[in-house]
Amino acid sequence: MATVLRSQCAFARLFVGKTGQILNNAxxxxxxxxxxxxxxxxxxxxxxxxxxxxxxxxxxxxxxxxIVKKPPEWTYVERLLPFNTIPAVTPKETYPSGxxxxxxxxxxxxxxxxxxxxxxxxxxxxxxxxxxxxISKIKRIEGDxxxxxxxxxxxxxxxxxxxxxxxxxxxxxFIEVKGDHVNYLIEWAHTKGF
Amino acid sequence: MxxxxxxxxxxxxxxxxxxxxxxxxxxxxxxxxxxxxxxRKEWAFQPQYTKPREVWIENxxxxxxxxxxxxxxxxxxxxxxxxxxxxxQNVIWQRKVRWVxxxxxxxxxxxxxGGRKPWPQKGLGRARHGSIRSPLFRGGGVVHGPxxxxxxxxxxxxxxRILGLTTTISAKLAQDDLHVVKDxxxxxxEPGYLEELIEKRNWGPSVLIVDDTDYxxxxxxxALDNLPHVNIMPVYGLNVYSMLKHDTLVxxxxxxxxxxxxILRLLHSDTRQQQRAFQLDQV
Amino acid sequence: xxSRQIVEKSLSMLRSLPRISLANIRDNPNCKKKxxxxxxxxxxxxxxxxxxxxxQRQNFMRLGxxxxxxxxxxxxxxxxxxxxxxxxxxxxxxxxxxxxTIIDKDWVDISKPIDIASIIKSGIYTFYPDxxxxxxxxxxxxxxxFSAKINIEVQWASExxxxxxxxNGGVITTAYYxxxxxxxxxxxxxxxESGQAIPRRMIPPPDAIEYYTSAxxxxxxxxxxxxxxxxxxxxxxxxxxxxxxENDPNYNMLCERKDPRQIFYGLQPGWxxxxxxxxxxxxxxxxxxxxxxx
Lengths: 194, 283, 294
Prior knowledge:
The complex is a heterotrimer of chains A (194), B (283) and C (294).
Chain A: H1 3-9, H2 12-16, H3 40-43, E1 65-69, H4 74-80, E2 111-112, E3 123-128, E4 133-138, E5 142-143, H5 145-160, E6 166-169, E7 174-178, H6 182-192
Chain B: H1 2-11, E1 27-29, E2 37-40, E3 53-58, E4 69-73, H2 75-78, H3 84-97, E5 100-101, E6 150-151, H4 158-174, E7 178-181, H5 191-200, E8 207-211, H6 218-225, E9 230-234, H7 240-245, E10 248-252, H8 253-267, H9 272-276
Chain C: H1 6-14, H2 53-56, H3 72-75, E1 93-95, H4 96-104, H5 116-122, E2 137-139, E3 151-154, E4 156-157, H6 159-167, E5 171-174, H7 179-186, H8 188-194, H9 206-213, H10 224-238, H11 251-255, E6 272-274, E7 279-283, H12 286-293
Parallel strand pairs in C: 1-2, 2-4, 3-5
Antiparallel strand pairs in C: 6-7
Helix pairs in contact in C: 6-10
Protein name (chain B): Large ribosomal subunit protein uL4m
Family (chain B): Belongs to the universal ribosomal protein uL4 family.
GO molecular function, one term (chain B): structural constituent of ribosome
């Protein structure tokens, strides 16, 4: 198609010179394809009053086209359309990006942290007051929330060697931990299999 | 709660297949001795931890209640944590979003008269004034009063509205105000039949019937025409205000499935394009 | 029942409470702060406007005015550090770590060539063509752990990123898309619904031609012979064995490239895609075919 044209036109701008201009949507890309203009689209210069042709009757009102039903290229079209729902992750041997899949054993625990729709853990960091307040929030908790709270406090106390303050909200199903403990919490959640 | 149901089933002398997941959707298992059907479902997004809910499938053919089978419901939609505050926010949103306040007061420029300085600036010993319609005067204009045609449109976040629906439906199910019905075929088009049915079955005086399509059999539409406290609506009209206003919620099987399917799809898809339409540009 | 499971507990509590109706629901306490006009000493009196002067009379001085002395914006001369910044092209970064994430999570299909449309479809990357952003700049964060054999087409990539992709047996190309094509790639569904014919992609502007015709940066206009030479050179420079992609079963997929005038894979300029009826309208007229194929 345009393979020959590519190499011809690549440096066409250099040969045109300083004053010459090749428009971005020029049909021949600056390379003179044929000595004589072949059709109305390629040749007429309408920007100059002196050299533009008189308006004549337009011969074709509508261009011919064919309708191809169930074309073989439809797979390419479907590839471009957005997802209906976020796809599930197929199991693989390794995940080089560091993503850890949830394990089935986690469902036997007295509490549960379901993954978000993007398959990530529901543990977030909220930073307010110009960075002076950091709160690690664990959302969407199911099961026994008070037991989960006790476990987290114990785990974080070991890691930080300090008492860690938490806030349990049963109705909204979240636990807020004072401070930035997101990495520890994610580690803990992965060990549990969530 | 499931154990109560299972003991009830045992008392009815029917056998249930063990709770194994069968890998084809909507498999109906008919046990040996009766014509009850128990439907175990395979959803696109399986419940992870919370157990699915089970409801009886009832009929509207006879005034007497007949249980036609058991039906499973997804916990994400029918067993959500009851959030009274989210329900309240949704109800307030529904009330305000379409309301336009037509209250109107005139400002000092709009009140008739008051173009002339009432008395000279100095010499009289009276307070200085520029017009008799200033807000200080009796009969003068109102300063920051209501101005006609004020809309109270605002959009509640997308997922707050979804949560409102799931919370309300779960609350209805938990308080025994949700009934799943096989279809809406009534034997007569008398409104009295439905009134008797509601009375007999101890459903609340007001009933909201939800069907999956917006056309229904003739009998029920004719009966409901004369019953203002019993209303029928399609799935796309389901809203928190209507569900709370009516005491009982009656869903057809198709409607229950459609609600489940739609809400699950929205909870598991990337809705940023849809939400962009209502996002504020201002910071 | 005494369940400690929060959802079961709350739903079973509801059974012994009155029916939830419009009359007995309320929002959380202190969620709505009533803002009233301040009265009296604290909050009232001057209402934050100070005493007399232009401030209290709400007749403020113009921005930058310094009550008479020569203001800063007139005193300090211009320094053209950022002259022409509004004309420069931008390429928002997309890391190799993010790319590996979408490959791991199956949001992009690596058995097909990856281009900017597939990366936007995955949802992890957005860019704004109307803000002079011209495509993806693949950066080297996550370079060490990157291991996926892909055929990827980006708009800008540095040497070590190219090396990281080719080390795993993949193919990387840098291609230019003009702003109109970028709008199409960002939201192909919206474009197909508009019923227009797929246009041709434009050639790069003069200051970008060098980048896209050089084999070193794997430009789409470069000579394929030069590119294979550069691949070998890069393998020697970074010290890895260049995998032989000719023997790969996915060789055809890895070598698949778009024509310089093509915007979408598999779809030629001039076609009209009808999503509703699942068909494609292709022009038959000679003039049109010549125009779109040029």
